[in-house]
Write a structure and sequence with these properties.
284 residues, alpha/beta, Rossmann fold, 2 domains, 4-stranded antiparallel β-sheet, 10 helices
Length: 284
Amino acid sequence: MASNVTRERTKMVPLPSDSIVPERDVNKRPVLEARHLGIDFGGLTAVDEFNLAIGPTEIAGLIGPNGAGKTTVFNLLTNVYKPTRGTVILNGKDTKGMRIDQVNRAGIARTFQNIRLFTDLTVEENVRIGLHNEIKCNMFSGILRLPSHWRTEKEFHDRSMELLKIFDMEYLADVKAGALPYGAQRRLEIVRALATNPSLLLLDEPAAGMNPSETAELMENIRKIRDQFQIAIMLIEHDMSLVMGICEGIAVLNYGKIIAKGTPEEIQNNPQVIEAYLGKQGED
């Protein structure tokens, strides 16, 4: 759990909901609030009493041992799974009853543990798919190839190139997504999620399969995304150097329940967290 990162830390401020947010976000409405969230599969409780608030420009972390329920939480926040109980408030709106695409349009975009790209489409075409939330098309102008159609096409292209430049990937625009190296596919999935114009970006193990150099570059790009787009980012990650180096507030999940919330320093030194990861140490 140790980290050698020596950067200035963001001051975190407690909320009445027993969550913490960066000081700069304390007088702003949270981008997301999960209240008493839980789900049962048959007789098994997978997640229970999950309470969390995320500030509108916060970089938050959700960590925990394998099988703790982290991806299940992401599926609950995006309505892939319908909660058995509890509420998800996104930008002040209850997401109950929303379809997955409606939750996306309301402000949440995500990536997945297992990369989900359209491998037979080009890099640019993958990004353009995400732009349908942001750039509206007229079916008839497309069929008739009216001037408005070509203006929209140029808008799609220009915006795609702008987003790809975040990861210096614009030169790969015409390459099939399936031909990209693993790390580049990971980056493309983040770009496509950004194309939907989210207010909250959920990253499920974004550094999986990356080497240390790629992980360090990813860390800087996550900060760049937050600063450039002024959005919140929440990530699930097993790379503790990434989590401790970039996250401002961290929640720790174990057996479907949050066992700790705090700053990276507080989490690193929390006995419950250490026990969850390393097991209870026997006495000599």
